[in-house]
Specification:
This protein is of the alpha+beta class. The chain is built from 25 helices and 24 strands. The chain binds ligand TSJ.
């Protein structure tokens, strides 16, 4: 146990040393897991970013070494090296050994440094096995090293102790800047493995947020080729061609700043105007910067940041931003007579349909709240952000170069408002339909007769013909059949009103009888198993994804409650002439097994679709609770389907190709059946 110290409240910040950090790392960096590990890197990166934000540096290099250590270098002024009059040690030593030392030097700078915890570089030092710093300043090179070790005499762990005072290397240089290299202490962290993707994503984001700043990331742990997933070629290894032995390296630099960020977010989407709207302003000591571009999507994508820290939970700055947009665009709609005198104003939501925006603000004394501490809790931020947003948009709206852009935004809002009104009507209708006992009224649905939802099953079957077979095959008592004609509506691309206007979707909703969206109540469902039955081909797979996306978006509770299933029809029948034996294989690996089981003289039938099966076969293989093969859909499956639909149906053609190649191995199946055929021919020869 540590000695108990008697601190006086005023002394705490002074007396509290690196020991305290070591003792309770979680207090300073949140956790000692992956997140905490990366946090000590961000503390260092933040300092370099600050130097750049203050206009003294324009380049930052982050390097991950083979031994797991990392370094950060900027080309700024270099940490002050002179001896601090009070403490009698160099500025460098103060920065790395005193908690919250950053502020001492920051006083005269317009700086919003701090980060999420804002604890400074000394915390990184305290939690590192060793840390080396090199400062290039006024033609000189300085070096200092710190280390952590177990002190036998004191019987305690010492952290971040200077090995020697700051040393002038007596070397001439024209370089200026700061280089910090450290090894996270494996006695502190559960893992010391830095994640390349985490680091590159964050550095990319920082490059977007700091216009023109060049950030390079190098990871010596992997080569360029390994990163790309390419095989090393013997000849290339020898010649060191094509990045075979070059470490992975990437540079991020955006002259367009957050406008480029928005363009990046909208890549591959259909944009309503080519160039994002951009504005930067300041009010009451708060810097506000935003970029906006609408797409033909229906959802809002707002990415907000406070002092370069993402705030996905929103907060007062987002409220101000949205209010500003709504105010100015409504004014503009009035002025341009897009809204007539008698028309009500657009709602905020109408302007948010298809909106992609990045909002970046800088302010002091930030308060983060919310479940993940990523929500801005400063109420005083709201009004200045709203002010800047409306001022900026107002200014741009008056510029005739932006007339087209603003008119497009109004047009989009008009569409959204129309849909909003229609949606309410459609929803009311759907609600009214649900309130009567509707489940025998549903058009194409072949209802079961039993009235016990826990026992009842709803089969959603691809195609009228398979639907017909399923109706013949079912046990009327507890199995309902809903045939789907063609492909159901892809809900991802539609607004709720269009979703609800679709007949097949309405049939599903009213058959289930539990409402939709926010009104969905899983307690009211008429079926405790909803079974999707589609063909084992591309179309069938697609239909399944579309249905899962629908359930995911509009009846998530149904998925969460584990009530959605995928029915698995067999792919093959292995049998003998005359029908004395028949076995069914549900996947390719099972096929060989069944072939062995049936033995010599076997025949194979491959089912291309549900429609090829007789009622008896469909019952035996797919519907009979005793023998069928159901897969329960998890929420992860539904999310995956949702993502797939976004890629498959979206505007990104590349994504679609890649997706099909990865997920639909239907061609492989064909290759397999060819192989089996060949074998079969051989086995016939044997006879
Ligand atoms: F985190 C850190 F401290 F280790 C660190 C600081 C790491 C890295 C990579 C860079 C830096 C850093 C600090 N870069 N630039 C600075 N600048 C100053 O500390 C500095 C220099 C000059 C003056 C001045 O008033 O002359 C003031 C400051 C704060």
């Amino acid at each position: 146990m540590e000695e108990q110290h008697q601190y006086n409240a005023n002394d705490i910040t002074i007396l509290e040393g690196l020991d305290a950090v070591r003792l309770r790392p979680g207090m300073y960096i949140g956790s000692t897991g992956q997140k905490g590990l990366h946090h000590i890197l961000w503390e260092i990166v933040d300092n370099a970013i600050d130097e750049a934000a203050n206009g003294y540096a324009d380049s930052i290099d982050v390097h991950i070494y083979k031994d797991g250590s990392v370094s950060v270098e900027d080309n700024g002024r270099g940490i002050p090296t002179d001896i601090h009059p009070k403490t009698k040690v160099s500025g460098v030593q103060v920065v790395f050994t005193q908690l919250h030392a950053g502020g001492k030097f920051d006083e005269h700078n317009y700086s919003f440094s701090g980060g999420l915890h804002g604890v400074g570089a000394s915390v990184t030092n305290a939690l590192s096995k060793w840390l080396k710093v090199r400062v290039y300043k006024e033609g000189k090179v300085y070096e200092m090293e710190f280390h952590s070790f177990y002190d036998e005499a004191k019987k305690k762990y010492e952290s971040g102790v200077p090995v020697a005072p700051l040393k002038d290397l007596k070397r001439k240089t024209d370089k200026h800047g700061t280089f910090v290299h450290f090894m996270p202490d494996d006695k502190v962290f559960a893992t010391t493995n830095f994640q390349l993707s985490t680091i590159s994503n964050r550095l990319n984001e920082l490059a977007f947020l700091n216009r023109g700043l060049k950030i390079t990331l190098t990871d010596e742990r992997i080569t360029m080729n390994e990163f790309k997933g390419e095989e090393d070629d013997e000849e290339n290894v020898q010649l060191d061609l094509m990045g075979v032995t070059q470490p992975y390296s990437v540079t991020y630099c955006y002259e367009g700043g957050i406008s480029d960020f928005v363009l990046h977010l909208n890549e591959g989407k259909a944009k309503l105007f080519p160039a994002p709207i951009y504005y930067k302003g300041e009010k009451d000591g708060i810097l506000v910067e935003f970029a906006i571009q609408h797409t033909n999507d229906y959802t809002e994508n707002l990415f907000s940041f406070v002092n370069n820290i993402p705030t996905p939970e929103g907060g007062f700055h987002e409220m101000g931003f949205r209010a500003g947009i709504t105010r100015v665009l409504n004014d503009y709609a009035r002025e341009t007579k897009a809204l007539k005198e008698k028309d009500p104003n657009f709602l905020g939501d109408d302007f948010r349909e298809g909106l992609t925006a990045v909002l970046s603000i800088k302010m002091k004394n930030v308060q983060f709240e919310g479940q993940t501490k990523t929500k801005l809790g400063n109420p005083e931020a709201r009004s200045p952000v709203e002010g800047c947003t409306s001022e900026g948009l107002h200014e741009l709206a008056a510029n005739k170069d932006f007339k087209k852009t603003f008119d497009e935004m109004i047009k989009k809002a008009q569409g959204a408002a129309k849909a909003r009104i229609a949606a309410r009507q459609a929803k009311d209708t759907a609600r009214a339909k649900n309130s009567i006992d509707s489940w025998t009224l549903v058009g194409k649905l072949a209802s079961c007769t039993g009235r016990h939802p826990e026992e009842n099953e709803l089969f959603i079957v691809e195609g009228d013909s398979a639907g017909g077979t399923a109706k013949q095959a079912r046990v009327r008592q507890f199995q309902s059949i809903l045939p789907l004609r063609g492909k159901p509506l892809n809900v991802e691309k539609k607004r709720i009103d269009q979703v609800l206007a679709n007949e097949e979707i309405r049939t599903i909703i009213s058959a289930l009888g539990a409402g939709i969206g926010n009104d969905f109540n899983v307690e009211k469902i008429n079926y405790h198993k909803v079974i999707i039955l589609s063909d084992a081909d591309q179309d069938g797979f697609h239909i399944r994804c579309i249905l899962l996306t629908f359930f995911f978006r509009y009846m998530r509770e149904l998925v969460n409650a584990g009530k959605v299933y995928i029915g698995m029809p067999p792919l093959y029948k292995v049998y003998k002439q005359g029908g004395s034996v028949e076995e069914y294989a549900y996947d390719d690996s099972e096929l060989q097994e069944k072939i062995d089981k049936v033995g010599r003289g076997y025949l194979i039938q491959r089912y291309k679709g549900l429609g090829e099966m007789s009622a008896e076969q469909l019952w035996k293989t797919t519907m009979d609770p005793e023998h069928r093969n159901l897969t329960q859909v998890t929420i992860e499956d539904a999310v995956a389907a949702d993502n797939m639909i976004a890629t498959l149906m979206g505007d990104r053609v590349d994504g679609r190709k890649e997706f099909l190649a990865r997920n639909a191995n239907f061609n492989k199946e064909d290759a397999f059946i060819d192989r089996v055929k060949l074998k079969k021919e051989n086995s016939d020869e044997e006879k």
